[in-house]
UniProtKB/TrEMBL annotation:
This protein's name: Maleylacetoacetate isomerase
Gene Ontology molecular function terms on file: glutathione transferase activity; maleylacetoacetate isomerase activity
Any one of the GO CC terms: cytoplasm
Keywords: Isomerase, Transferase
Length: 216
């Protein structure tokens, strides 16, 4: 979908994991952008204006290079291909496969069942919706991250999820750990994830993308 080129614009929500991923990636590749908030709690993502940007009614949406892009991992891969080869994805095929697999374990397995629409539906059928939401988040985020911790028991794991520099896998991990802490998930079984998250927090590109730095 073509757009009028007018700089890079990110339509996002400050607490959205998918938006958080793209903010990190844009910062890592040094792409200047303007943020346009889409308030999910106010259902701005279902307004005609946003549905015209993305018929799925999801964030983020990125206007870049005269094009309109959706889906956070597809956006990250576009940035990897057009901005800095080898930075967000490894140069070798097996390395790229591993980083994609790690990224998908979070973005396609943990994240979807904990998304706003899914959890709201679960809460609507419960007597104590808040308690059900907390238990749901702790179960699916906790189990998913515990498995991710085991996936890092691999010779290619280094100071980060893959090797000695952050990749798309770390871009996915950090927002998920933010959510885990928000929902009081027990991370005692995930010491490697916690250590990687701490290293990422020391990198300016990650720090500037943090929800606390970007909320309205």
């Amino acid at each position: 979908m073509g757009i009028v080129a007018n700089g890079t614009v990110l339509y996002d929500y400050w607490r959205s994991s998918a938006s958080y991923r793209v903010r990190i990636a844009l910062n890592l590749v040094g792409e200047d952008y303007r943020s346009v908030p889409v308030d999910l709690l106010a259902r701005a993502h279902r307004a005609p204006e946003h549905l015209a940007r993305n018929p799925q009614g999801l964030v983020p949406v990125l206007d870049i290079d005269g094009e309109r892009l959706t889906q956070s991992l597809a956006i990250v891969e576009y940035l990897a291909e057009t901005r800095t080869a080898g930075l967000l994805l490894p140069a070798d095929a097996i390395g790229r496969q591993r980083v994609r697999a790690l990224s998908h374990a979070i973005a396609m397995d943990i994240h979807p069942v904990c998304n706003l629409g899914v959890v709201a539906h679960v809460m609507a059928s419960a007597t104590d919706g808040e308690a059900v939401r907390l238990a749901w988040m702790q179960k699916f985020i906790g189990e998913g991250l515990a498995a991710f911790e085991r996936l890092l028991d691999h010779p290619s794991t280094g100071s980060f999820c893959h090797g000695e520099s952050p990749s798309m896998a770390d871009i996915c991990l950090v927002p998920q750990l933010y959510n885990a802490r928000r929902w009081q998930v027990d991370l005692s079984c995930c010491p490697r994830l916690v250590a990687i998250d701490a290293r990422c927090a020391e990198i300016d590109a990650f720090a500037r993308a943090h929800p606390d730095r970007t909320k309205p």
